[in-house]
Design brief:
Two copies of one chain form a homodimer.
Chain A (H helix, E strand, L loop, with lengths): L11 E2 L8 E8 L3 H12 L4 E4 L7 H4 L5 E2 L5 H5 L6 H11 L6 H9 L1 H10 L22 E2 L19 E2 L8 H15 L2 E3 L2 E8 L5 E8 L2 E13 L8 H7 L8 E2 L8 H8 L4 E2 L4 E4 L12 E4 L12 H10 L5 E6 H4 L8 E5 L2 H7 L6 H13 L31 E5 L8 E4 L2 E2 L6 E3 L5 E7 L18 H18 L7
Parallel strand pairs in A: 1-8, 2-3, 2-10, 3-7, 10-21, 11-18
Antiparallel strand pairs in A: 4-6, 5-6, 8-9, 9-10, 12-19, 13-18, 14-15, 15-17, 16-17, 20-21
Helix pairs in contact in A: 1-7, 1-14, 4-5, 12-13
Chain lengths: 499, 499
Amino acid sequence: MSAPEADRIRPLRAEEIARWDREHDVVIVGFGAAGGSAAIEACRLGADVVVLERMSRGGGATALSTGLVYFGGGTEIQKACGFDDSVENMRAYVERAAGAHADPERIRLYCEDSVEHFEWLRSLGVEFKPSFHDHKVTHPTTDDSLVYTGNELAWPDGEVATPAPRGHKPAREGEAGGYLMEAILEAARDAGAGIVNDCMVERLVVDGTGRVVGVAARSFGEPLTVRARRGVLLAAGGFIANKEMLAQHAPDLLHCNYDVGTPGDDGRGIRMAMAVGAEAVNMSEGLILNSWYPPESHLEGILVDGRGQRFVNEDAYIGRTSDAMIRKADGLAYLIVDDEIYGQTQAFHKLAAVEETIEDLERALELPEGALVRTVAEYNRDASEGAGSSNGRGGRDRLFHKAPKWMRPLGSPPFAAVDCRVGRSIYGGLTLGGIAARATGEALDADGEPIPGLYVAGRTCAGLCREGRTYASGLSIGDATYFGRLAGRRLAAADSGSA
Amino acid sequence: MSAPEADRIRPLRAEEIARWDREHDVVIVGFGAAGGSAAIEACRLGADVVVLERMSRGGGATALSTGLVYFGGGTEIQKACGFDDSVENMRAYVERAAGAHADPERIRLYCEDSVEHFEWLRSLGVEFKPSFHDHKVTHPTTDDSLVYTGNELAWPDGEVATPAPRGHKPAREGEAGGYLMEAILEAARDAGAGIVNDCMVERLVVDGTGRVVGVAARSFGEPLTVRARRGVLLAAGGFIANKEMLAQHAPDLLHCNYDVGTPGDDGRGIRMAMAVGAEAVNMSEGLILNSWYPPESHLEGILVDGRGQRFVNEDAYIGRTSDAMIRKADGLAYLIVDDEIYGQTQAFHKLAAVEETIEDLERALELPEGALVRTVAEYNRDASEGAGSSNGRGGRDRLFHKAPKWMRPLGSPPFAAVDCRVGRSIYGGLTLGGIAARATGEALDADGEPIPGLYVAGRTCAGLCREGRTYASGLSIGDATYFGRLAGRRLAAADSGSA
């Protein structure tokens, strides 16, 4: 299918540009966490920077998020809360969290510079509170600043590195991503970056040598051409909002019915870079999030598939449990709870069935005869090994090594199945594929060579974390801000093009 | 990482070509099933065609294969063997076999033209025998020409379309792919195609408008430039032999330790096209093949994962069972058999354990306590519902709907676990991602627009079948030959470039 003319992204040639409306050292496309961080650093190094933002205001996906940032190696907050962490220990965990095919150089830099990067974010005015939120949550709502956000405590990761909480949330109640982004946006303005909102970059402009020398944009219907003396940074988000791209590159993510991002995450940044020969990699991977908890008590339930079999340790990070719901359970998953566990459930949870016995629940869910009964009996046997403990929790999960603190036999009727099926529950998604790039942002072509004048950061590039099933919350904002900074510094130091 | 100079694939500009050593209407890169079929058709329509083959002889992956081709809709062989089939019925099945995100136009054409395409292949001298091989096999070794090669009879596909065997094997014992390819190579030569062996195409050449106008190749160390008046067809295979590309695009396929292809399947064709702005899609998908049978009796065993749980219906096509071994069992799979089932096993099967009881087998495999015992007991209960039948087979597989003909309680000691683990058994793989293209071969850019002068076929493009877990044997050779023909015809009719 051909794209409509307005959606075309093939590059323009410099000789097709009759007039450059603006000219800057550095042109940044997208005013989210990556673009904003890059703008701050490039300006501070003396570059003349403009940021072109397609929405009416910057912020990007980060402004819509909880604002968790993955820091470690011994931040002041970690120390104040009594947690020992080191660069080496953080790195041992991040190597797993980033996925099997991540870039070792990105992992190394990210961990070595984590304390410095934390202080940099604080220096922008983002406040953190030295208090530890000792709960398993997907979106912490208190103003506590330290929380476990990945698989640090879950099998098998807990055996690889000494667990330490590394999710750092700004000291604000509720969702704190907006608060975090306000600090970045203000710092970028203060540093002197020019900001053009409501300005959608439509195409890159290349000269006869293949160097990217500017962009062609549109603002309120009017064309705007912007020449970039040192380079263009695409920090324009991922492609979760582009269903055609998902079908072509990341079919598993089509099961998601909630975009973790903005409508701007339509892949245009990635496609503009591909169209000048940049290589897109890791495109099939993404983070899938089915929030089957809170309440925290749900972790004491068991996740089963359409055969009534368990398929994952329930205390793993939801990126892993959700990936397993898709890949292992084929999108046909239920959380089985008893009345005590069910607790204060959330409005977005729907119940597939409620029955007085597991036998009836099995029938109501049309699971294979005897399958759920057997699974629960076996789980209860494993969990009853902790029956003697003071709070009734404990046991030994022979199948999936769920931690004893979440185990308790299911026994208080009625029993319910929280619906986690695709199409019946909320599956959020974001993409983890994008343009191949050096840690300092240079976009790479299929030969692994930098494309002169073109840089990428944030979800437009294949960044730090490459797999949703290994992910930890905070890695995306951490990646976008940190590598955005590196790209901004690199751009400020780049040679001017000869165009 | 930058590629070594010799491996670089960025296009050359026409003005960099000092001299065109050769000039033809149509330049075909790769003399496999796709390139050969294209050459035949283009020559027959009067085009001046050259085929550049990097190996010392054509044949490609097809020459190394069993030579199965997926034909249907009522071929003479199907009719002679007493099977009713129709275009509509074939299409209902191929829509599933091609995968959820396949191109409907390719499916339609492939099914509508299948009888014609079968007769075309016969007209090249490829013989088929009207005999049905009534066995579940991965690589039929007899000279029978008709066999079931997909999930036609397996749940749930058997409920969607009336099952009909569509795997057509040339009437030769053993592997027949070489025989099939000899006919295609000879027909291409007879039609007048020029053949240059030992000639590796290294880069495409583009003119100032972006049109592909030729190729730069190397033959025995000497450079060779070839101008293409009408166009270049890349029919250069997939990328299973390029482990770096697999890591970037198809990480699941890195579990494969046997390339279903040739060393030429290094992705160079795909990368050359990407480098001129063609879009690569479906890159994460591939066919994974763990041949845990023959012997056919193995289908009466049960596949279990590291938790001792079943995870797939064992009578599904091995593309599906192998995909499940990776995605559902995390590469930790065993086939559990008893002495009667074990039968005449193959040299490439290794046993992970052999024990007198299931309890001992469970312990030897270090499966969770009681898990395998329970799984076997339950399977035996399901299978014993057929105990009254004349051959002892039958039953009802409550979990996965395996067909009764493969069910029999496991009961004759000793019991064995055939090792299907990643790293301990053979996982073959081929890639199913490639350049986005029209059914007639025009390579498409990120806007969905054809790149003038550039065509793709075979595994270099994202073709008919997009998912290994839905695949049926014969779809790749069917796709390569049929869409190779369409591309050859399209190229013969293409306008000459203005370069």
